[in-house]
Amino acid sequence: MLQEAQSVASGISGADIATAAKYIAAGLCMGIGAIGPAIGEGMAAAHALDGMARQPEMQGALMRTMVLGQAITESTGIYSLLIAIVLLFVA
Amino acid sequence: MIKSIFEQLSTTLIHLGEKQIVTLRLWGAQIQFDRDALIMTWIVMAALIVLALFLRRALKQPVEERPNRVQAALVVLIELLQGQLTSSFSSERLAISMFPFISTLFLFVLLANWIGIVPHMSSPTQNLNVTMSLALMVFVVSQVLAARAKGVKKYLKGFLEPVPFLLPLNIIGELSRPMSHAFRLFGNVLAGTILVTIVMAKFAPIVVPPVLNIVFGLFFGAIQAFVFAILAVAYINVAVEE
After folding, report:
1. Who wins on pLDDT, B41 or B24?
2. How many CA atoms within 13 Å lie on the side-chain side of B53?
3. Which DSSP string do the residues of B90-125 spell out, in sequence order?
4. Which H or E run includes B34?
5. Within a 10 A sphere around the Cβ of B7, how many other Cβ atoms?
6. Contact between residue B131 and residue B185 where contact means Cβ atoms under 8 Å apart
7. By CA distance, what is A78's nearest residue in B?
8. Which of B86, B230, B233, B236 is best to mutate for the A interface (most A CBs within 10 A)?
9. Exposure b/e, A81-91, CB count within 10 A at least 16 = b
C-alpha cells in the first residue's frame, strides 16, 4: 500500500500542485473576501430600513445614500473577485 | 438534443476570457485594441445617437402649447434623472452645468450593461479599458472643476494639507478613486457575464439563463449604471467642495 501511494505521489508534478493551489487560493479568496462586504452591506440596508420605517417621507434620499454606501462597501469584495479571476484565468 | 446544446455551449466556455486583439500600424507606431470592445462601444454610441435623433423629431412643436406623448414622456424622464442623479450636488449651478455629462454617462453605461443580454453581443463594460477611460474622464473633470472653483494655487495647496508630509498619501488617495470607480463597474459586469456563461454551458442551458440574464443583465446593470453616475456626482462634488 505504501508503494502504491508512493507511485501515485511520484506521478504528481509540480505543475499539478500549482494548479491545485491556484484553485484553492481562488476559492479561499472569494469565500473570505465576500464576508466583509456582505456584513457591511447588510448593516447599511438594515439601518436604511430603520430610517425609512421611522420617516417614510425620507425614502428617496435614504435609498440613494444607501445604494451609494453599499457600492463603496462592495469594492473590497470586487477586489477579491478580481484577484480570484486573475488566479483562475490569467495566472 | 440537450446533449448537443451542451456541446455547442461548452465551446463558448473555452472562449470565455479570449480577446480579439487588432493591431493597427500607423507611421511605425503600433496601436493595439480589443476588437469586440471597440465595436460594441460604437454600437452603443450609435444606438444612443439614433435614439436621440429619433426622439428629437417629436420636439418640433412648442412644448408649452400641447405637448405630445413623446414630449411628455421625455419630460418625465429628464425630471427623474435630474431628481435622482444631480440633486446631490451642493450648488444648483453645478447641478445644472453637470447634468448633461452625468446623464450621458448614466445612459451610456446603462445601455452598455443591457446590451450584453443580446445573443452574440458582449457588454463593452466588461472590458477594463472602457470602464477605466470612463472613470478617468470623471477624474479629469473633477480635478479641472476643482482647480477652476478654488483657483490653481489653492487647489495645489490642498494636496499639502493637513501637513506637507502627507503629500504622497493625498496623491495616492486621489488616484485610487478612478481605480475603484472603474474596477467596481468592470468587476460587477464581468462577474455577471461569467456566472451566466458558466451556468448556461455547464448546468442548465434552457430555462435558467433568461432568469439569470434578467437579474444580472437588467437589474444589476441598471443598479451599477446608477451607482456609477452617483459616484461620479459624489467625486466631482467632493473635489469642488473640499
Report:
1. B41
2. 6
3. SSHHHHHHHHHHHHHHHHHHHHHHHGGGSTT---GG
4. strand B29-34
5. 10
6. yes
7. B187
8. B230
9. bbbbbebbeee
Query: Using CA atoms, how far apart are residues B35 and A1, in angstroms rounded to an integer?
Result: 56
C-alpha grid cell, residue B236: 466631482
Which candidate from B84, B180, B183 shows the least CB-CB separation from A64? B84
Q: 10 Å Cβ neighbour count for B178?
A: 21
Average predicted confidence (pLDDT) for chain A: 87
Looking at residue B5, what is its pLDDT? 64
Is omega for the bond preceding A56 within 30 degrees of 0, making it cis?
A: no
Q: Considering chain A, what percentage of its residues have pLDDT values greater than 90?
A: 37
CB-CB neighbours of B222 under 10 Å: 15
- Cα-flanking dihedrals φ and ψ of residue B190, to 5°? -65, -40
Sign of torsion over alpha carbons B170, B225, B68, B48? positive
Amino acid at B20: Q
* pLDDT higher than 90, residue A5: no
Model confidence at B207: pLDDT above 90: no
> Pick from B190, B223, B230: which is nearest to A85 by CB?
B190
When pLDDT is cut at 50, 70 and 90, the band that residue B9 belongs to is: low
Sole residue written with cell 494639507: B161
pLDDT value, residue B12? 64
CB proximity B188 to A under 8 Å:
yes
All three cell numbers of A22: 491556484
CATH number of the domain located at residue range(s) A34-91 in this protein = 1.20.20.10
Query: In terms of pTM, does the model score above 0.95?
Result: no
Q: For residues B44 and B115, is the Cβ–Cβ distance under 8 A?
A: yes
Which residue shows C-alpha cell 504528481? A12
Angle, helix B2-14 to helix B167-198, in steps of 10 degrees: 160
